[in-house]
């Protein structure tokens, strides 16, 4: 399973729109345009298909944590 497939399945399972995914990525200071994001969700045989790299998926998963849980408070020992 490719990173593109994982991203697509998460988008469907969590019912996320492209603008929400863009916001999630911005939570971890990763900027991506809507058109760049759309290229990740195209089929592999499409001429404008872009392979999803590990960095994009990693940032999306980290942003997803912040999106649902919120930022962690720094705890003093």
Question: Which SSEs are present, and which pair or pack?
Answer:
Layout lengths: L2 H11 L4 H9 L7 H7 L13 H16 L8
Helix pairs in contact: 2-4
DSSP helix fraction: 55-70%
SSE string, helices as H and strands as E: HHHH
Largest sheet composition: none
For the secondary structure, the number of strands is: 0
Radius of gyration: 14 Å
The unreliable regions are none
Total of domains = 1
Amount of beta strand: under 5%
Outline, from the CA principal axes? elongated
Secondary-structure-derived class: mainly alpha
Number of helices, counting only DSSP H or I runs of 4 residues or more: 4
Distance between the termini: 42 Å
Mean pLDDT: 92
A few lines on this structure:
The protein is an all-alpha fold and 77 residues long. The chain has 4 helices and no strands. It has helices at 3-13, 18-26, 34-40, 54-69.
Commentary on this structure:
- It is a single chain.
- The protein has 77 residues and is mostly helical.
- The chain has one domain (3-69).
- It has helices spanning 3-13, 18-26, 34-40, 54-69.
- The longest helix has 16 residues, at 54-69.
- The mean pLDDT is 92.
